[in-house]
Amino acid sequence: MLTNVEGKFDDYPDEVKTIMLGVRELILCVAQDNQLGAVEKSLKWGEPTL
After folding, report:
1. Looking at the chain, which terminus has fewer C-beta neighbours within 10 angstroms, N or C?
2. What is the pTM of this model?
């Protein structure tokens, strides 16, 4: 995982981090099972910029 993404995951409480890592793993498994290629990891949430 990219350092900035990993750092953001580490900022969450343990119970939230566990869920988010599970979702991440699910996404990676679906991509692999369907031979979709590499998954780009980035942070896409937050306040919108105007």
Report:
1. C
2. 0.67
